[in-house]
Queue: 4 jobs
Job 1
Amino acid sequence: MSWKKYGEADYITTRWSGGTTTQLAIAPEGAVYADRDFLWRLSSAGVEDDYSKFTALPDYERLISVLKGDLEMKIADGPRQALPCCQVAAFDGGVPVESWGRCRDFNLMVRKGKCAGAVQSVRIPAGGCVEITPAVPSGCYGDCCTAAVYCAEGSVTVSGVFFASAGELLLNEEYKTAPLRLESAEGAVLMLAVIFRI
């Protein structure tokens, strides 16, 4: 299977207590987030309130990264601390999480016992090209997974053929784990996610 591109016309945006969330992709296709029976979900939220509480999702593991703005988080009984831009925080979706600050973020949710995921940021300078092997979640094996490249800023060409500009997602649900060739004429900030079935 090749890479499929998703853009604004494919996304679903909903409002929550602290802002809006744009669903980029969900599995299985056609699953409804509110039913809480999906395997995984990629999304980007706009946090508009200075203080908010995360929705409890006890059946899911969550990975979150800040794309723009500032965010401090308190996860369960941990300390309140800043999440630097493009770094990834992973936590149990069932624990209480409070946040302070306004930002645009990137999220991956994976169903416990069914999937495992990893998220990493990639920055490419103008005219640059990198080959990167996606991070593999601990304990996951096999040579096939779902891979996603979200273009947060700029534009990117994957494997010399598949192009995405800012706000677009490239998804490959039969990705054979191998280095990805990522090129950008203007420079890019990317979020790279992989999801393995357990």
Note: The CA atoms of residues 51 and 98 lie 7 Å apart.
Job 2
Amino acid sequence: MENGVVLFIGCIAGIVTGLIGASGVMVVVPAFVMLGYATSEAIGASLFIDTIASLVVAWTYFQNKKLNLKQGIWIAIGSVGGAQIGSLISPLIPDVGLNSAFSIFLVITAVIFWFRGVNIGVPDLNGNDGAARQSHIVKLLRSNVVVSGLLLGILVGILSGLLGAGGGVLILLILVFVMQYNMHEGIGTSTLIMAFTAASGTIGHAISSNLPFKAAIYGAIGTVIGGRFAARFANKVNEKVLSKVVGGVFAALAVTMLIAR
């Protein structure tokens, strides 16, 4: 029975990744915690499932020529190292503290999704009329994409190892608003980088014995099905409406996790 539930959870996580390039962590971790796994184990499983989902989705975007690692490679390198740091710290944090931190992460992610399609004083995706509104921080980051990519990648990696997320949302924001990728290339490239980050975090959790292999494998099987199907139809989805729905779901999950502990 549990294997079937985990398979379904993986499928939903794959759909989330395939449609909007986000980590399935928001689905996997709360569900695994509710199944009785420790938060650190749920995070380890989430990273493993994220790795498989991201590879499947990235391959689909690559087939449609919507993947560009020219500048994103520096984020990938930084995130791999950062994920090791985060995964080593994760087991040292009590479940209650880790659970609360994860809930806060869910709330922040929900807000990002809810307002994702809204222009809030940053350059538009095509770079039109954006120069006057660029903050000094963004200009500084764009002045040296190698250094900024590495530093931002390390930060994303640490958060990924701690919270079990591949960092897809954060990577996407960096690619679009710092590296000036268009949205399609941003999603495709962020999922590939997310695969590297999640794989690094998975190794760290496996070394720390916080990876339930059987459950993670069943979840990965489900994510292949959901991720491949969703990625094929990603361009047909109304992104603004979908972002609001997913943001609302993530916020609900955050509240559920805070109440559950």
Note: The two ends are 24 Å apart (CA to CA).
Job 3
Amino acid sequence: MEIKENTFIVTGGASGLGKAVVENLLREGGNAAIFDLADEQGQALAEQLGNAAIYCRTDVADEDSVENGVNKTMEAFGAIHGVINCAGIGIPAKVVGKKGPMPLDKFTKTIQVNLVGTFNVTRLAAARMMENTPNAEGERGVVINTASVAAFEGQVGQAAYAASKAGIVGMTLPMAREFAGTGIRVVTIAPGLFDTPMFAALPDKARESLQEQLPFPSRFGRPTEFAMMVRSILDNPVLNGETIRLDSAMRMQAK
């Protein structure tokens, strides 16, 4: 899928991995619709990037909110050629902690944002991508989801997060098979430890401890490296129905 002159929705696009994706898409001549709830950051980024970017205040788990964002994207650019789902939350909590069982709303909120939100944006964006004229490879669009290595090796306190990310991995192949007839590919990236705002707040000692678990390179991934993987997926028409670990060969320990 060509990036130049094509349009991509990026959820969670105001910061972290999503922001790096947005910036890379525009460097390659594409258009980006930034779906986020961080109004100040999102609007500032869109203004900085110019006419090729718009900001859409969007709650990914809300049907009307996403539909409004999709409509705004169509009005601005006339078509949608891809969606990169980066929006997500991680609320650490044990199933049964010192204060008793995890509040159910913590679990359901994580599932709603991470899993339902990914599904919600994908289904509404894919319906528009199916209307596109196929390119030379027969492609009408590309869906790129963000899971996590926690989908495979979740830590204590990550039951909700790991379940939400495992759900994203689990729906990748069924979606790819369903969309195959319309020329829409579906690929998921499972990042390891990346230098995003979530990890920036950690004390230096905690950051060093985490980096020691990374075989090579023994450092947090850079958001720009995540964006490089997004570009590789967009460029390669044979990549489909796969979950790609992007983790420096990390395998998270039990404790």
Note: The first strand starts at residue 7 and ends at 11.
Job 4
Amino acid sequence: MRALTELTDAELAAAVQHHGGQPFQGRQVSHWVWKHGVTDFAAMRNVPARLRQDLATAFTVRSTQVAKRDLADDGTQKLLLALADGETIECVLIPDGDRTTLCVSTQVGCPVACVFCASGLFGVRRNLTAGEIAEQVLVARAELPADRSITNLVVMGMGEPMLNLDALLPALQRIHAADGIGMGARRITVSTSGYPRQMERFAAADPSYNLAVSLHAADDTLRKQLVPTASTPVREIVAAAHRYFGQKGREVTYEVVLLEGRNDRPQDAEAMVETLGALPCTVNLIPWNPVEEIAAQRGLRRPGTARVDAFAELLRSGGLKVTVRRQRGADRSAACGQLRLRTQTSA
């Protein structure tokens, strides 16, 4: 059966009327799904019992459920979600002071195949639907205690968001809309490994979300080693990101996963400064969260604090704004795609 989370407002109104309800009751059902996060038709108290029963024969409320939870010592919680077709995805809750950030996925697996990432080890299985993307917010929200709420959303889990814009854009609209989950656009960030044509389409969407670009290296040859599927020159990706800034007025963040001896050398910092130094942007350095299977096979290592700090200082001395992401959830399958990988390989 189709889930209510997959229906547009017009489709839900039509479904309600088909089952004998009134148009306004479609809005009531929608509020129960998105604002209140109910998972059972019986909880929709102001909807007539007969209508609830009829809807329950044709629809489910959601299509996903939590298959596994991993809670780290620092409070980071990774959720493995089972989809209706048996596939699995991940989303992650990251508490930090008064902030709680949720990281969501857009695909089952990933086609980008970054050498350091567990998400792409088995390729991409399929795109997520708009409902499956938005449901991750509902599921994660229900995991939080009453005194905490999701303050920020980052679309940088499993998958390449720009390759699933047909589902991502309506999902974000549902997450942002006042009649949906109601999260401000300035609190939503979408990360891409760099697809200029799709980035232009993303820039044309309303409202204006934040954009992050997973760059990893400013040199095309080195970037190709780290991101084997990369076919677009760095200069074209950066130009597209700068056009996004010009169109939306939102400063772009460039993400760099640092690997010891691979892309954390002085010459790598110099190339980054040469490429980005004149642009309004922030470089977010992410020391690699080791994945045992990848580290052993590919000889990758997480750089020590001194190397990370030295790299950051070289960027700052070149005029760049720099942040360094501290490791979260290190004791519980911290890296993206790792919980799904461990579950699949142990099955």
Note: The radius of gyration is 21 Å.
